[in-house]
Amino acid sequence: MNALLPVLHLAQRENGGWLPPGWDAYVAELCETTLNHVRGVITFYNMYRDTAPGKHHIMVCTCLPCGLCGGAEVLEHLEHRLGIHPGNTTPDGLFSLEEVQCLAACDKAPLMVVNDGVPEQVTLDQIDTWIDQTRAKGA
What is the pTM (predicted TM-score) of this model? Predict the structure, then answer.
């Protein structure tokens, strides 16, 4: 049971950034724990997803340091630009958005991470440029 978190992390990485249906039962059996325990962990921690993320999964920190430095504004701006709310994916599957608590780089607040990248301090202009370039590439 002590291996549950790393096993979930590995399973998610092997499945394109999420845990498809059935993987929770497989992990429960592998870790010799209950399905309810595994589901509880998956839904408690925001690092695990049970829905497929967009090609560019965007995480925005809104905890206290980031919140004081504009994290909420960054999230709101992304919602407006992408036309989605946290927990959703754009219809083209290009972007998904997630509000997270603490990316462990508070000195760089406000923080945004794309996929498994490094937390970076961002401005609204940088976000707009990145979105426009990413959409133009269709990538």
Answer: 0.79
